[in-house]
Write a structure and sequence with these properties.
Blueprint lengths: L1 E8 L3 H13 L5 E4 L4 E3 L4 H5 L9 E3 L9 E3 L3 E5 L4 E4 L4 E9 L4 E2 L7 H4 L5 E2 L7 H10 L9 E6 L9 H16 L4 E6 L8 H14 L2 E3 L2 E7 L4 E8 L2 E8 L2 E3 L4 E2 L2 H4 L25 E3 L12 H20 L11 E8 L2 E7 L18 H17 L18
Parallel strand pairs: 1-2, 1-8, 2-5, 8-19, 10-17, 11-12, 11-17, 12-13
Antiparallel strand pairs: 3-4, 6-7, 7-8, 9-18, 14-15, 15-16, 20-21
Helix pairs in contact: 1-8
């Protein structure tokens, strides 16, 4: 049995960022990442892949090139957690013991929870930016979309019930598609059918987004949960909640962009680490497990009530690192995560709202500008600046850049 001082399960954005910050803080720490994937993707870029701005290859790097110097990489998948014995089992049959465990596995996409979707996806106008296998097909579908009368003219975009990663992504592609439709002067209707009761969960940003919907002529339908895709008849079936009752609504489509339901990976949900939700049960401020003191979690799999974005990891990682080191030193855990998250809400080609906020749904902008305004500058940041910051600063353990911006608190 191999023993590890700090074992990080998951080598995505959260796991690598945490590992890099730990090694920056204390180079002598023995840090191990357990991760099966050979490729690492910049998933926030997939909206722009689906919009024809990025190629998929631009969002990919080799995992081996991203593992921080001095960190051990075990290329294997987690198969089970036994926190009572400080053990993790792997798919290949290894048993790994640890002093401290960090769970950063991310989410799983539940395509099969929508009847007919797995068979329909990637053909017949059914696409999704949530998969590296299908994001390029979104752009192919948008280019091929001809509009028309009736159902053939419907470009339908869905949003699954929360929690999902990058909650703004389902509407971003709808706004970009509306621009394509307008530029081509197609006879078409863009329909945004979302499971949520409103356009966005943070009121101060929801207000300008409602204006975007109105300006672009998008048909926004709320409390719509996609339950089935019928590719033969090109129909999407929704369960629509209306107060205490619900009804079924069938919407025909010419193209259909689907956001699948999401959940914690089954190996996490079935473990003693999980809350009733299936996500890792941690204190929302300290990121420490509520029952196992030597377990922490960050990123999409953690059970904090924050918006699940890559940017949230930048708020979480410094807190996790500080508290993990305090635990090793036998000191009180003093660092606290405020729920920081960021969603660059692309509202069209050349426009974006940089929505940054905390647990209290208060704006916490990184720029001394009104954060609720659509700006070309924020589009430029999303398209040009953020990918480089992700690869070259976030994954190397650098702190958030807001500390360098005049007029803001670090």
């Amino acid at each position: 049995m191999a023993h590890h001082q700090i074992l990080i399960v998951g080598g995505g954005a959260a796991g690598i960022t945490a590992a890099a910050q730990l090694k920056r803080a204390r180079p002598a720490l023995a840090v191990t990442i357990l991760e099966p994937s050979s490729n690492h993707y910049y998933q926030p870029g997939w909206t722009l892949v689906g919009a024809g701005v990025f190629s998929l290859e631009e969002t990919r790097r080799a995992e081996a090139d991203l593992i921080p110097a001095g960190v051990t990489w075990i290329r294997d998948a987690v198969a089970g957690f036994d926190p009572d014995r400080n053990l993790v089992s792997t798919a290949s049959g290894q048993s790994l013991s640890y002093d401290v465990l960090v769970v950063a596995t991310g989410l799983q996409l539940c395509w099969d929870k929508i009847k007919g979707l797995p068979e329909a996806l990637g053909q017949g106008g059914v696409c999704s930016n949530y998969s590296q296998h299908h994001a390029t097909y979104t752009w192919d579908t948008l280019q091929a979309f001809k509009g028309g009368q009736g159902a053939a003219g419907n470009a339908v975009f869905t949003c699954a019930p929360m929690p999902i990663k990058c909650p703004g992504a389902p509407q971003k592609i709808a706004y970009l598609a509306a621009d394509v439709v307008a530029k081509k002067r197609l006879a078409a209707k863009v329909i945004y059918a979302t499971a949520t009761p409103g356009i966005f969960g943070v009121p101060v940003y929801a207000a300008p987004l409602r204006e975007v919907v109105k300006r672009k002529g998008i048909d926004a339908r709320y409390n719509h949960v996609l339950t089935e895709v019928r590719p033969q008849s090109r129909e999407a079936v929704f369960k629509v909640s209306e107060g205490e009752t619900s009804r079924e609504e069938v919407i025909g489509y010419g193209m259909l962009h689907v956001t699948p339901p999401m959940a914690a990976p089954q190996v996490v949900a079935d473990s003693p680490l999980a809350a009733a939700s299936g996500f890792v049960e941690v204190d929302k401020f300290s990121l420490q497990h509520t029952r196992y003191a030597n377990v922490f979690s960050l990123g999409d799999v953690s059970g904090m009530p924050n918006s699940k974005t890559a940017a949230a990891v930048r708020g979480q990682a410094p807190v996790l690192v500080a508290n993990l080191l305090s635990l090793l030193d036998g000191q009180p855990l003093a660092a606290a995560y405020d729920g920081y998250s960021c969603c660059p809400l692309i509202t069209g080609y050349g426009k974006a709202i940089m929505a940054e906020f905390n647990y209290e749904q208060q704006p916490v902008p990184s720029f001394p500008l009104d954060p609720t305004k659509e700006r070309w500058s924020m589009w430029w940041i999303k398209r040009k600046l953020l990918p480089g910051l992700y690869w070259n600063r976030m994954l190397t353990g650098a702190q958030h850049e807001r500390r360098f911006i005049p007029g803001l608190k670090g």
